[in-house]
Recover the amino acids of this structure.
């Protein structure tokens, strides 16, 4: 019986071709701990503004229930690509920031 089980086990197809195909998904806290260049606040800000900054379209965010996980490779690709239309690409000077704030108050 043991040999039958081993034979059936050997025939099972792998989910991924190689271990390189398995994405590294990390919660925000662990991502920040692994990559010291980011703070938890910065990462949460990126995730909060994911629709405006293009992070959602990049596929870097994976939701598992209430937990938000970041795909390392896709996050860095998004970061290097320049975060399209993100708030980081917002006002260039303090004068632009003041105009933007006053425009919000008028509405």
């Amino acid at each position: 019986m043991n040999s039958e089980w081993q034979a059936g086990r050997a025939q099972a197809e792998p989910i991924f071709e190689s271990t390189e195909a398995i994405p590294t998904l990390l919660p925000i806290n662990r991502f920040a701990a692994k990559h010291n260049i980011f703070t938890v606040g910065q990462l949460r800000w990126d995730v909060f503004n994911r629709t405006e900054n293009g992070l959602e379209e990049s596929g870097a965010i994976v939701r598992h229930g209430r937990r938000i996980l970041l795909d390392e490779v896709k996050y860095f690709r998004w970061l290097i690509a320049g975060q399209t239309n993100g708030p980081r690409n917002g006002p260039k000077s303090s004068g632009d920031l003041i105009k933007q704030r006053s425009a919000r108050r008028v509405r």
